[in-house]
Amino acid sequence: MSTSSSPARVNTPVNAYTIMVAIVAALGGLLFGFDTGVISGAMLYIEPYYGISNDPNTVGWIVAGVVLGAILGAAVGGKLADAFGRRRSVVVTAVMFAVGSIACAYAPSPDWLIAGRIFLGFAIGIASCVAPLYISEMAPPQIRGGLVSLNQLMITIGIVFSYAVDYGFSTMAEAGTLTQREAWGWMLGFGFFPAVILGVGMLMLPDSPRWLAAKGRRDDAERTLKKIRGTDNVSQEMAEIDESLREEDKEAKGSWSELLQPWLRPLLIVGIGIGVFQQFSGINTVIYYAPTIFKLAGYESDSVAILATAGVGLFNVIMTVVAVFLMDKVGRRPLLLTGLVGMMISLMALGYAFYVKDTSAGSDLGAIPVICLVSLLLYVGSFAISLGPIFWLLISEIYPTKIRGLAMGLATMIQWGANLAVTQSFPNMIATLKPFGTFWLFGGLCVAAWIFAFYLMPETKGVTLEEIEDHCRDGKPLRKLGKV
Ligand code: BGC
Predict the structure, then answer these.
(1) What residue owns the CA closest to ligand 1's atom 1?
(2) Whose CA is nearest to atom 12 of ligand 1?
(3) Is the minimum distance from the CB of 162 to ligand 1 under 6 angstroms?
(4) pLDDT of residue 3
(5) Do the Cβ atoms of 232 and 22 come closer than 8 Å?
(6) CA nearest ligand 1 atom 9, residue
(7) Which candidate, 119, 307, 339, 436, has a CA 20 to 30 Å from the CA of 104?
(8) 388 C-alpha vs ligand 1 centroid, how far in Å?
(9) Are 32 and 159 in contact (CB under 8 A)?
(10) How far apart, in Å, are the Cα atoms of 367 and each of 303, 349, 353, 357?
(11) pLDDT range class, residue 5, cuts 50, 70, 90
């Protein structure tokens, strides 16, 4: 089978139904973004309410509980998706998101809140791997990059949406319409609404044809394919799915040991590597700590620092929209390599601004706050067209059907682990390496990520999932994928 995209595949029909399927599933991303972002504003009310302002341990657990839960969720999410189906797994996470939101909103104690946050994180961990996986398997190859990147777009929208929800309820608290307790309850509970939409929406959608075929439900698979492609002429795509499943080990049950087959190794290395670099490039120090960074850079007022943070969040959304449109035109590799250069330059500039600030004697900061804002915008914009969407997209494309969930779960779990490591150590890094050293270190890690991506990142634009599998099974270098 050819490794280039054949003309017939490029003409796979695209219909509104497929796009709607992707949007509904991507609500999992919205909840991912919302539940990670909402806590920053809510903590302003939770800390005094529980009197835990001087208890960094409890505060840390309330904030980072979702990340810990996500590591655990990702560990089981893939296995769940392989065993019970992509659709059912997303429905289960929607129920968990709804229950977790209410549990956090009504939390009677900090311990309860921590448990609720870990539970929500568990749902995030599952959704973060199953939603892109489902979209990838439903998408026609020529727009798969854009559709899977909708999930990343929803993550970024979820983050900004959480800032807006925090802002809305905090103004109501300030106006006296809500008590402080009610305000943070509403903030955390608000995730209930998108969770219900996700659950009800997913109940109305079919499972992916690839998963159905892998489970021996060939007729269901064909019926679904006809529906999502809007045509009865699906014989070629069905034949490719059949063929790839024939080639996959008949005994394959999706066990951990199967992941260690030699031909899968490069795929695991690239998926896990890009995930670790996504986090080690420091993105969540900006997403979670942007107001602190702005204050360090000399923004004296809290509200201006928060406004600048909102600007960074919005720019993240805008540039992710650009990524959605470019992903299938420009391709994954050029976007990743270009974005990494942008991240590298901006981190160096950010470090330099802090270096000048730290070493200059005078109190006049000159252009430093402006350089800081511009660098952070360039950094987040570059992330949004590269490491942000491309990690999730890549791991949803490169693994064979029968172990796709498991392999994605593993890469996702390690990526969440890397997230926890970076975000937990950031305050210490700032104290020991100083801000300039910290950002230069992240910049150096972007150089390493660039070299890694240059040698290992495959181009999966326009190539079918089955062609990707064939290429790797034949032991051909990943970098040659997508080249005629
Ligand atoms: C990352 C998250 C990050 C978000 C920011 C996602 O791709 O996995 O850790 O917070 O992008 O946009």
Answers:
(1) 388
(2) 156
(3) no
(4) 39
(5) no
(6) 284
(7) 307
(8) 6
(9) no
(10) 20, 12, 9, 10
(11) very low
Ligand 1, residues 161, 278, 312, 442: which to mutate, most atoms within 8 A of Cβ?
278
Q: Is the CB of 287 under 6 A from ligand 1?
A: yes
pLDDT tens per residue across span 195-232: 999 999 999 999 999 999 999 999 999 999 999 999 99
Amino acid at 269: I
Q: Taking Cα atoms as reference points, which of 441, 413, 458 lies closest to residue 280?
A: 441
Considering the chain, what percentage of its residues have pLDDT values greater than 70? Answer: 95
Is the CB of residue 152 below 6 angstroms from any atom belonging to ligand 1?
yes
Residue 482 has pLDDT above 80, yes or no: no
> Would you mind telling me the total number of residues written for the chain in this entry?
484
Nearest CA to ligand 1 atom 10: 284
Do residues 256 and 406 touch, judged by C-beta distance below 8 A?
A: yes
Q: What is the pLDDT of residues 97-154, one digit of tens each?
A: 999 999 999 999 999 999 999 999 999 999 999 999 999 999 999 999 999 999 999 9
Q: Which pLDDT score, from 0 to 100, does residue 289 have?
A: 83
Q: Is residue 396 within 8 Å of 132, Cβ to Cβ?
A: yes
**What distance in Å separates the CA atoms of residue 16 and residue 226, rounded to the nearest whole number?**
13
Is 125 close to ligand 1, i.e. is its CB under 6 Å away? no
Q: How far apart are CA 125 and CA 431, in angstroms?
A: 30
Contact 312, 156 (CB under 8 A): no
The alpha carbon of 171 and the centre of ligand 1 are apart by a number of angstroms equal to 27
Q: Which two tokens stand for residue 413?
A: 């779990």
Nearest-angstrom CA–CA distance, 463 and 282: 31
Q: Is 316 in the pocket of ligand 1 (CB under 6 A)?
A: yes
Put simply, whether the predicted model's pTM sits higher than 0.90 gets the answer yes
